[in-house]
Amino acid sequence: IAGGCRVLQNHVLTHIEVDGCNDSQSAAEGAVLGLFTYDDLKTKKKTRVTTQLHGSGCVSGWEKGVLYGEGQNLARYLMEAPANHVTPSVFADTITNRLAPYADHVTVHKRSQEWIEEQQMGAFLSVSKGSEEPPVFLELHYNGCPDNAQCPLLLVGKGITFDSGGISLKPPSGMDAMRADMGGAATVCSAIVTAAALNLPINIIGLAPLCENMPSGKANKPGDVVTAKNGKTIQVFVTVSIGLVFSLSMDVALGSAATGVFTNSDWLWEQLHKASVVTGDRVWRMPLFQHYTRQVTDCQLADLNNVGKYSRSGGACTAAAFLREFVTAPIGRTWTSQGDDQ
């Protein structure tokens, strides 16, 4: 369906009726995703196409699928836009504006650099200090369930709006793609926008630390030691963000066949696996062995290395081991919903 819609768009059709194919929600989602294009900065733009369900399919399923697709396209838009057009402040403003229609059950906090300093988020600040763009800590609260006894679902996404690598400068080939290094934050924030649009009966908190990673006289240097909010010290072996190490190593391990999942919760893994079966987005559970933990905790100057010490192999696993050092919540099921799982 997505491919067909793109072909018709190229033929300058402005309206398409889409057969639901016995699954109106998936049909709508495919149509919306297929028609996405980022051409805001081009003089000649793609034809803007409207779609509707053909025949007597499930209208509510179609409407839900449209919202699913629009949510994903919001993340794609933020990731595709140039870094000078989506700075940390612009990113935060964009999400704030998208959530404005749902102000009755969504609260947005755009935390300033001063607030970040008060919270002693030294690791975050150490990444941002090489850039002229101020960091923003974006905090979103979606309250879809009035029952205060229900624990919120917490989503955290990395928001490096451009990652040059810092002093450990990346090769120029492909560096332009590092405008999308805030894909985690884009996904988290877009998920909350979609949850609000769907009026889901759950509570969600989204956290997105937003900044640039740039080289300058104030930037992190290899060998520096910084202190994270929880008091742990980190020796910076390379100034490239750990998220890049994570994503590239995962791509080497699994390619495009599946998404790797690191979790210390069997319940969470089960929920993600069930969701992957429904959506067709396959997932694969990855190991959290102590073998990898030792590579980040055996450190000369601090509590932790920010990369695996002994080998470049298993980069995704050592990155997950590093992140695990900041997980203090008890293992187990921490979120429930009334009725079927949402």
Structure overview:
With 342 residues, this protein is α/β, with parallel strands linked by helices. It has helices spanning 2-10, 24-34, 59-80, 88-99, 113-118, 122-128, 183-198, 242-254, 266-279, 290-297, 315-324, and strands at 15-19, 50-54, 106-111, 136-143, 153-156, 159-163, 203-213, 225-227, 233-235, 259-261, 283-285, 304-305. The strands form four sheets. Strands 3, 4, 5, 6 and 7 form a five-stranded mixed sheet that branches. Strands 8-9-12 form a three-stranded mixed sheet. Helix 9 links the parallel strand 10 and strand 11. Helix 2 packs parallel to helix 3 (59-80), helix 3 packs antiparallel against helix 7 (183-198) and helix 10 crosses helix 11. 36% of the residues are buried. Residues 333-342 have low confidence and may be disordered.
Brief summary:
By secondary structure, the protein is an alpha/beta fold. It is built from 11 helices and 12 strands.
Core attributes:
342 residues, three-stranded mixed β-sheet, 37% helix, five-stranded mixed β-sheet, 12 strands, disordered C terminus, alpha/beta
Q: Summarize model confidence as the mean pLDDT.
A: 92
Distance between the termini: 26 Å
Unreliable stretches: 333-342
Tell me the fraction of residues in β-strands, as a range. Answer: 15-25%
Number of distinct helices: 11
* Helical amount: 25-40%
Largest sheet: 5 strands, mixed
